[in-house]
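My current task is to audit a protein record that another person submitted. Thanks in advance; the entry in question is below:
***
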Amino acid sequence: MRVCGLVLAAGGGTRYGRPKGLVRGADGVPWVARAVDVLRDGGCDGVVVLVGAAGDEVAALVPEWASVVTVADWADGLAATLRAGLATASTEGWDAVAITPVDTPDAAPAAVARVLGALRGRSPLVQAVYGGVPGHPVAIARSHFAPLAEALDGDRGARPYLAAHGVVEVECADLWSGEDVDRP
């Protein structure tokens, strides 16, 4: 099974005060580069970074081995970014995607590996949870790309679809906090 990692980095970061795709950690490493590495090190065969706000600047921070896709309608909300990622994965023939937002700089590759293990164990929808609280990464098999894209709307992600379609939750709190960073 070939898995494409998707980094959601298109948003404007209104709560953060700037696009999170431009943020660097205290060590100077861009969050977007970290997210790409986490997906690759966790077992993804390739990675696509979805950019929108400050797209050219964010794309310049992406490791050269990863792909960049510009989301023209990124301002319409998270659903537009996720739809673009699913469309890219479908067009490129990937069997599944593993999704993470750019604002999880402390994410552990082991969480990606654990979620992908459940996916490869024949669960087509898998989501990491942290103390039972849904988080990232999320893995989605190709059979769900089109129906999920159809169900997405506005600034909401995949959670309602996942819950309605029997997502398998994989506990990952022993690996990292699961928290995203919304404010500086």
Notes: Helices lie at 31-41, 55-59, 78-91, 109-120, 145-151, 159-164. The radius of gyration is 15 Å. The mean pLDDT is 97. The beta strands are 3-9, 46-51, 67-70, 96-101, 125-130, 133-141, 168-171.
